[in-house]
């Protein structure tokens, strides 16, 4: 399953919002870890904050790594920056990290939970070395912080 949407028509290229595996289950999945907000809530939050900063949003959630990589390739030249919660691929995927540098735009990595306070296997990220910033443990507000940071980097 995947969910893709595009909003906004401004002078800026849109922000690409990517959510990886299992994040479609936000709100139902371990709410004590990931909170009560749904993925739809997250997308609305990002769209609202991005619009305030004069950016549209292209949003994709997928549980299929190849689909996410294809979407990143297709975004080259079409987005101004990337906000990504790679989910479990954070800790496993060289291929996702390789793809993310292809659009040559700033990347903000978001984790809803504080991955450093969790299992050891969540402490390593293949994405962090190529990210302009990493936000963890702020709940879904981390997505808002990511959009604001991205907009200031792009200003
Ligand atoms: C989300 C996931 O799905 C996990 O695999 C990561 C991250 C943490 C989060 O906190 O948003 O380890």
Give the CATH class.
Alpha Beta
How many domains comprise the coordinates? 1
Bound molecules: 3-dehydroshikimate
What gyration radius follows from the Cα positions, in whole Å?
14 Å
Give the number of helices: 5
> How are strands sequenced across the largest beta sheet?
1-3-2-4-5-6
Order of helices and strands: EEHHEHEHEEH
Strand content: 15-25%
Going by helix content, strand content and strand pairing, the class is alpha/beta
The number of E-state strands comes to 6
**Gap between N and C termini, in Å?**
35 Å
Q: For the report, how would you describe the main beta sheet? A: 6 strands, mixed
Could you say which overall geometry the principal axes of the C-alpha atoms support?
A: globular
Q: Name the average pLDDT.
A: 95
Low-confidence stretches: none
CATH superfamily: Dehydroquinase, class II
CATH-assigned fold name: Rossmann fold
Describe this structure in words.
With 155 residues, this protein is an alpha/beta fold. The chain has one domain (2-154): Dehydroquinase, class II (Rossmann fold), CATH 3.40.50.9100. 32% of the residues lie in helices and 20% in strands. It has a 6-stranded mixed sheet with strand order 1-3-2-4-5-6, sandwiched between helices. The relative contact order is 0.20. The mean pLDDT is 95. Bound molecules: 3-dehydroshikimate. 3-dehydroshikimate binds next to loops.
């Amino acid at each position: 399953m995947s969910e893709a949407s595009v909003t906004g028509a401004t002078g800026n290229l849109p922000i690409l919002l990517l959510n990886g595996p299992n994040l479609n289950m936000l709100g139902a999945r371990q709410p004590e870890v990931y909170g009560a907000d749904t993925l739809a809530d997250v997308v609305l939050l990002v769209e609202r904050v991005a619009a305030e900063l004069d950016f549209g949003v292209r949003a994709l959630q997928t549980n299929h790594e190849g689909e996410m990589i294809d979407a990143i390739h297709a975004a080259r030249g079409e987005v101004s920056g990337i906000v990504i919660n790679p989910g479990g691929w954070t800790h496993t995927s060289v291929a996702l990290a390789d793809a993310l540098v292809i659009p040559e735009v700033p990347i903000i990595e978001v984790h809803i939970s504080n991955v450093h306070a969790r299992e050891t296997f969540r402490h390593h990220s293949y994405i962090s070395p190529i990210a302009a910033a990493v936000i963890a443990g702020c709940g879904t507000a981390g997505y808002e912080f990511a959009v604001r940071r991205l907009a200031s980097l792009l200003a």
